[in-house]
Amino acid sequence: MTLAEFKSMVSLSKNEICREIFLENAQTIKVKKEERVIHNLGRIFDATLAISNKKGFHAMSLRDLSENAGLSMGALYSYFASKDELLSMIQEQGRRITRRVLEQQIRPDLAPMQKLKAGIIAHLYLSEIMQPWFYFSFMEAKNLEKKQQKDAIASELMTEQVYAAILREGQRAGDFAPTDPDMTAAIIKAMLQEWYVKRWKYRSRQIDVEQYAGFVLNWVEAFVRPANRPVETK
Predict the structure, then answer these.
(1) What is the CB neighbour count within 10 angstroms for residue 125?
(2) Ranges of H-type helices in the chain
(3) Where are the domains of the chain?
(4) What would the pLDDT profile of 91-139 be if each residue is shown by its tens digit?
(5) How far is CA 106 from CA 112, 114, 123, 177, 223, in A?
(6) pTM (2 d.p.)
(7) Across the chain, what does the average pLDDT equal?
(8) What is the dihedral of CA 55, 60, 65, 68, to 10 degrees?
(9) Could you say which DSSP state residue 77 is in?
(10) Phi (first) and psi of residue 75, to 5 degrees
(11) Which is it for the CA torsion 7, 197, 103, 208, positive or negative?
(12) What is the distance between the alpha carbons of residues 21 and 38, in angstroms, rounded to a whole number?
């Protein structure tokens, strides 16, 4: 699957993401006109990610955010009560999207190898489309409050557990070699994180996300497939 094909299958426009956030937080957001909320949330989140990915979320002041989003301080407080609440809104929405996309792409009717490939491609392409959010989440994890750190760890383990479950399914079916599924899943996750954290390194080598995905898929398949089974050609 190409990145363009993935984009056509997965609905991830900024407006749709902000609409979801509005609906999830309608009780606390003081502004009730949906169109205005969606527009301003987009400005707030774009500014937050841009500032945070340069100097860190905790170093960002609300005045920094106000100036970069083009909204007054009072307007900001119409959408969230504190920086922690803003952080929770951004983080939780990203996790919801990741869970939803993985569930959509890893269909129950697929064979284990197809499921594993679908999960890897979905995660890589999603991280390409939402690179500022993935980078933000990875870099800010160490600075989160204790509860937020637990949520971030749970989210990372969730994706590892998805891959580990597929690996176990493939081993039971005899499709995969008897490797340690948890360790293998952890290494797969690390390879996926390598793309969105150090994407600059691959861009400098003129490697795009489709080429990187192809390499990861080939590596993973070679590692998990038993020696007596041929490599899939499709």
Answers:
(1) 26
(2) 3-9, 14-24, 34-55, 62-69, 73-76, 83-105, 112-129, 131-140, 146-172, 181-197, 199-204, 209-224
(3) 3-224
(4) 888 888 888 899 999 999 999 999 999 999 999 999 998 888 888 877 6
(5) 9, 8, 11, 21, 20
(6) 0.83
(7) 88
(8) -20
(9) T
(10) -65, -40
(11) positive
(12) 9
Two structure tokens written together for 36: 């205005």
Position 77, amino acid: Y
The C-alpha atoms of residue 25 and residue 194 are separated, in whole angstroms, by 32
Alpha-carbon span 143 to 139, nearest angstrom: 8
Whole-Å CA distances, 26 to 12, 54, 56, 71, 85: 20, 30, 27, 20, 13
**Could you identify the residue written with the tokens 């969606």?**
38
> Quick one: CATH architecture of 3-224?
Orthogonal Bundle (1.10)
Place of tokens 């100036």: 67
Measured in residues, the chain has a length of: 234
Query: CA 112, CA 183: separation in Å to the nearest integer?
Result: 17
Q: If DSSP codes are grouped into helix, strand and coil, which group holds residue 207?
A: coil
Residue type, 5: E
